[in-house]
Amino acid sequence: MAKLGFAFGVLIWAVMALSLHKSEATQFIVGGAKGWGVSMAQSYNQWAEANRFQIGDSLVFNYAADQDSVLQVTQDAYANCSIQAPIKQYSDGHTVFQFDKSGAYYFISGNKAHCLKDEKLVVVVLADRTNSTTLPPPPSAPSPAPPNDQTWPPSPSPSGSNETNPSPPPPTVEISPSPAPSGQEAPPPTVEISPAAPISPPPSLGYSIIPSSIGSIGAFVAAAAAAILA
């Protein structure tokens, strides 16, 4: 379905581009109502300079087919009014010439006497349509869907309890005064610091019952032996 939609979008875009190109093309009638002839010879290039010609536009030459014609020629033939070996030649009386590329186009009358009286024309066609409506960009091909990311559950933390050993109590400070000899001042008391007994972590429940049971049995045996001996 995605490829079908993309192809349909490209087709619509191409139709829009073609329709806009055709609708904006302009036909310029050379010489206006007077057409292509000697009477307008002196103002043809002035008329061309006052207009903007773009690719797809057309020139319309109206003239008497039995008296005149239109030749598309090179720059040198234009300058010399040479009617030999033209690029294109028209003599139908109603010539429509469409611009298919940018650049300079040179036209002269097929009657050399008319060309010498300036019945000739230079048209410069622009490279692009600066005043045309901007088309939207063509649709882009659909990108493939990314693979589903597999999210792995975090590993469970190792079981176990953290035993916190109680802090040892502060050491005991004992102050014992020394006896003062007669007639002398008593010396300062001596300070003795007894270190606190280390506190071992509490034994586990499985092993604390056995030593207490052994101690109770030993005390009972000792008391019985002392009674017999007595």
Structure description:
The protein has 5 helices and 9 strands; from the N terminus they run αβαββαβββαβββα. The chain is an alpha+beta fold and 230 residues long. The protein has a 4-stranded antiparallel beta sheet. The chain is rod-shaped and about 165 Å long. Strand 1, helix 2 and strand 2 form a beta-alpha-beta unit.
Mean pLDDT: 73
Low-confidence stretches: 19-23, 204-209
Q: Identify the overall geometry.
A: rod-shaped
N-to-C order of helices and strands:
HEHEEHEEEHEEEH
Distance between the termini: 109 Å
Decide which structural class fits the backbone. Answer: alpha+beta
Tell me about the largest β-sheet.
4 strands, antiparallel
Strand arrangement, major sheet: 4-3-6-7
Q: So how many helices? A: 5
* Percentage of residues in DSSP E strands: 15-25%
Total DSSP E strands: 9
Write down the Rg.
Answer: 58 Å
What is the helix fraction of residues, given as a range?
25-40%
Brief sketch in words of this structure:
The chain is of the alpha+beta class and 230 residues long. The protein has helices at 2-24, 44-49, 75-80, 112-116, 205-229; strands at residues 27-29, 58-62, 70-73, 88-90, 94-98, 103-109, 120-125, 172-176, 190-194.
Key descriptive features of the protein:
rod-shaped; three-stranded mixed beta sheet; 5 helices; single chain; alpha+beta; four-stranded antiparallel beta sheet; 230 residues
List the helices and strands and how they pair.
Blueprint: H1 2-24, E1 27-29, H2 44-49, E2 58-62, E3 70-73, H3 75-80, E4 88-90, E5 94-98, E6 103-109, H4 112-116, E7 120-125, E8 172-176, E9 190-194, H5 205-229
Parallel strand pairs: 1-2
Antiparallel strand pairs: 2-5, 3-4, 3-6, 6-7, 8-9
